[in-house]
Amino acid sequence: MKIQQQHELFSAVLDLPLGKLGVRTAGGLITELCYLPPHFDAKAPQDAVAELAATQLARYCEDADFPFDLPLKRAGTEFQHKVWDAIRSIPRGSVRTYGELAKHIGSAPRAVGQACGANWFPVVIPCHRVTSSSGLGGFANSDDPNGYLLGIKRWLLAHEGSSEYAWQQTTLL
Questions:
Q1: Is 127 a catalytic residue?
Q2: Which of 20, 79, 97, 129 has its CA 20 to 30 A from that of 112?
Q3: Which of 34, 61, 116, 127 does the annotation list as catalytic?
Q4: Of 15, 18, 21, 12, which is closest to residue 50 (Cα–Cα)?
Q5: Does residue 72 form part of some domain?
Q6: 46 and 118 part of one domain
Q7: pLDDT tens across 110-128, in order?
Q8: Both 49 and 86 in a single domain?
Q9: pTM of the predicted model, to two decimals?
Q10: d(Cα 108, Cα 133) in Å, to the nearest integer?
């Protein structure tokens, strides 16, 4: 019952090569993209915006250079937008550390990490391209090295051609 109720929160649950991704929509906009645990069942898109998201995310999974053009609802603080804009400027196949991004925008690494964790639109705003100075770092507020979230980060970085963490690629998904 609980999983069914959670399943109803999404306009689609996509089963992508990177893992499960929930799509929430309202009023013709994408309101949130959520990484989901592997036990979630796929759910076909329930509206045109969810269908558009499904199509574009599938295209990205085929071609890491695919440019997203999705109607995203404005969410987050001005500071988060500053961080997210900086993240969007990181080229595919490259990574920046929390510290490098913080220096670029005149902030602190912890604040950048918190803004990354608060990203409403992962993949589209590629926070997976931000790592710690000593390794992969966390992802989506998780630092469990064997968890599905860091498995998704590893997949995304490898998909985009970042060889720095290829040795950490796992088969968790």
A1: yes
A2: 20
A3: 127
A4: 12
A5: no
A6: no
A7: 999 999 999 999 999 999 9
A8: no
A9: 0.85
A10: 13
